[in-house]
Amino acid sequence: MAAPALARCMARTGVLPLGQAWGRAPRLPPSPLPAQRRAFSNNKVLVELDESAGVATMKFKSPPVNSLSLDFLTEFCISLEKLENDRACRGVILTSAVPKIFSSGLDITEMCGKSTEHYAEFWRAVQEMWLRLYSSNMVTVAAVNGSSPAGGCLIALTCDYRIMAENPKFSIGLNEAQLGIVAPFWFKDTFVNVVGHRVAESSLQLGSLHSAPEAHRIGLVDELVPEEKLKDRATAVMQQWLALPDHARQLTKTMMRKAVLDRLVAHREEDVQNFISFISKESIQKSLRMYMEMLKKKKS
Ligand SMILES: CCCCC/C=C\C/C=C\CCC/C=C/C(=O)SCCNC(=O)CCNC(=O)[C@H](O)C(C)(C)COP(=O)(O)OP(=O)(O)OC[C@H]1O[C@@H](n2cnc3c(N)ncnc32)[C@H](O)[C@@H]1OP(=O)(O)O
């Protein structure tokens, strides 16, 4: 199904028509086939699957800043679903093909001056991305090779393990408060599960963007490595995780994440309505417009 048709279907039903994102049967190990590499790509996400290792790399390629637009989110979910259903794939590394940027977070233009229907469609796609990634049966490793504010940080937090390039110019964090907006409860829950309540509380209130060393110190990322070693390190970490039996790891992951996933699943439509009423406020629209202007001025 083409991305726009799929987006419409997601807007109508609230889920991708490809199957449920959570509560799947455990994955089976891949059959011992000869070594093979496959790649598939749509406009914004490139996927390379190394069948012999059982590992895919998903590269975000939506310049200039890999913002999470409706199209991006739809393509992301399609790619993830394909891998989830592929017995040859047991793990996925998420990284960026755009230099210096992992992802700039939700596409602000999707949240400015649009219709209620558009906000609902967009927010369902954001929810879908998170539900699918957080509940994935695959091992998920974020190789954070650039700045990663807000929704970009959420993607990294949603993975099982985070490795960041130790470039002092890269920052990561849930900076929503700086935009005059509020991270929804499931962003907050995911953050708390990674860094703990105290750190999450102050970081969220201040809308902090943490430098790579600071992010490592507070546990937001698990490791820092020189940029040129990021890919190899992500591959090595993936191998360590895949050395364990899938079923034990998957059931443990489900046990750790179920409460947080269930909370959104139970309140999904309410969360969409909250988003619409919040984002439609004139004061919030004004804050977002000013923020976009600030980004543009920074350039000139
Ligand atoms: C109790 C009640 C609670 C109710 C709550 C209910 C619901 C919750 C409501 C809302 C929740 C929303 C959650 C939002 C999450 C988000 O992710 S918001 C997005 C936050 N992102 C950012 O703040 C990042 C902004 N961007 C930057 O800081 C920089 O662009 C950069 C990523 C560091 C890259 O810098 P640089 O390389 O210098 O590139 P430029 O700044 O020049 O940018 C290039 C062009 O890209 C445009 N752009 C950048 N980011 C975005 C974005 N996120 N969306 C759309 N567009 C973006 C930028 O404007 C430039 O455009 P032009 O070339 O000037 O046209």
UniProtKB/TrEMBL annotation:
GO CC list: mitochondrial matrix
Keyword NADP recorded: no
Family: Belongs to the enoyl-CoA hydratase/isomerase family.
Catalyzed reaction equations: (3Z)-octenoyl-CoA = (2E)-octenoyl-CoA; (2E)-tetradecenoyl-CoA = (3Z)-tetradecenoyl-CoA; (3Z)-dodecenoyl-CoA = (2E)-dodecenoyl-CoA; a (3E)-enoyl-CoA = a 4-saturated (2E)-enoyl-CoA
GO MF assignments: delta(3)-delta(2)-enoyl-CoA isomerase activity
Protein name as catalogued: Enoyl-CoA delta isomerase 1, mitochondrial
Subunit description: Homotrimer.
Function in brief: Key enzyme of fatty acid beta-oxidation. Able to isomerize both 3-cis (3Z) and 3-trans (3E) double bonds into the 2-trans (2E) form in a range of enoyl-CoA species, with a preference for (3Z)-enoyl-CoAs over (3E)-enoyl-CoAs. The catalytic efficiency of this enzyme is not affected by the fatty acyl chain length.
Pathways per UniProt: Lipid metabolism; fatty acid beta-oxidation
